[in-house]
Amino acid sequence: xxxxxxxxxxxxxxxxxxxxxxxxxxxxxxxxxxxxxxxxxxxxxxxxxxxxxxxxxxxxxxxxxxxxxxxxxxxxxxxxxxxxxxxxxxxxxxxxxxxxxxxxxxxxxxxxxxxxxxxxxxxxxxxxxxxxxxxxxxxxxxxxxxxxxxxxxxxxxxxxxxxxxxxxxxxxxxxxxxxxxxxxxxxxxxxxxxxxxxxxxxxxxxxxxxxxxxxxxxxxxxxxxxxxxxxxxxxxxxxxxxxxxxxxxxxxxxxxxxxxxxxxx
Length: 265
Known about the structure:
Blueprint: H1 2-12, H2 15-18, H3 22-59, H4 66-86, H5 94-97, H6 99-121, H7 127-132, H8 142-167, E1 172-174, E2 181-184, H9 185-197, H10 210-239
Antiparallel strand pairs: 1-2
Helix pairs in contact: 3-4, 3-6, 6-8, 8-9, 8-10, 9-10
């Protein structure tokens, strides 16, 4: 009986009576639990944003039919709701603490909205325009914006080659005012390649920049994408009449042999 009474007294004992440090460690415990829950919420939201953005990209074409536009708008609303949900977890210092967890979703979102913007206007979405599409005060870093544009070149490559196969020509815009033919997609891809290749990420105050970490790999993939459109366009011009409608170029033909394979989009 005495032993049972001792257990009851120990249960009712205040935690601070055991050790003056216990309340402090209990606070650490609660803070770590809160951090882990917040981190998991952001990771889940980022994955959902990534999945929805990829679905948007797969449905984009030119022009965008009304049923597809309605479906795309529904997915954009879902993405905005996800951003709004995690916005309280990404305020103040937490916007940098959890930047890595939300980064993938932001990059995929930039790829999707910039692709649609290009199809509609034939120009790139600016950082300010992309930031304005993300609600709740969630910050779009310049690194995620630029890396999202790198991914865009892969979608432009597929769009250009599909047009060559189905229509026998490169997608081309019209000049404002007179409606005459404007730039084609290969001109735009070459301009993007030139500007990306001029980026200098070898020095700077932020040694932990994701842009520095991923720039080399993304640049190589971007060059591959532009090269594939160039090769398809050359084939169309030189031997286009010899090929049946719907012909799709062999994108591996003409590539350097023995070259280490590069991850594609």
